[in-house]
């Protein structure tokens, strides 16, 4: 199958069956990108989610644009983005015409309540499946717990939390690289001294 058509169909299906917002798309994306298509490893997928979640805009569209670009460049990003947005665009046009009459319908309200619960279950499943790839050390565990407390308990704006951890991540990487350089210099000077003793 043509890869552009494949990108369109993958993201069209994801856009059609993702209920509950972009985060609910993550388990479906994980299954499609890692298990079915083998486009990413689990570690790569965690990085993609982290990048797309930290950017402005809807994560579903960010993911489609990013994955499309990685697979087929600019045209791939356009095709994947159109694919993921088309189902909701068409459905919103249809629903907008009849929303007034459906708004108080008990069947519709019941269906939406069940869909929201299912979306929550999918998000929890994605968290459980991706946690081992995302949390590899004590620093990552502390960062995950701290971000949860800041957002869920202290009600800090998500954008500020993202910026905080970008800064902390950069600082941590710089400290780690300085330590590595210092250790390498110490090893080099130690081996030089050892050579001179001989």
Secondary structure elements and pairings:
Layout: H1 3-17, H2 25-36, H3 42-54, H4 59-102, H5 106-134, H6 138-153, H7 158-197
Helix pairs in contact: 1-2, 1-4, 2-5, 3-4, 6-7
Structural summary, described in words:
It contains 7 helices and no strands. The chain is mainly alpha-helical and 198 residues long. It folds into 2 domains: 134 residues, no CATH class; 64 residues. Helix 1 runs antiparallel to helix 2 and helix 2 crosses helix 5. The radius of gyration is 23 Å and the shape is globular. The model has no long low-confidence stretch (mean pLDDT 80).
Q: Summed up, what is this model?
A:
The chain is mainly α and 198 residues long. 85% of the residues lie in helices and 0% in strands.
**DSSP, total strands:** 0
Largest sheet: none
Helix content: over 70%
Number of domains in the coordinates?
Answer: 2
Low-confidence stretches: none
Helix run count: 7
Class by SSE composition: mainly alpha
SSE string, helices as H and strands as E: HHHHHHH
Q: Categorize the overall geometry.
A: globular
Let me know the average pLDDT: 80
Mind telling me the C-alpha Rg?
23 Å
Q: β content, as a range? A: under 5%
Through-space gap between termini: 66 Å
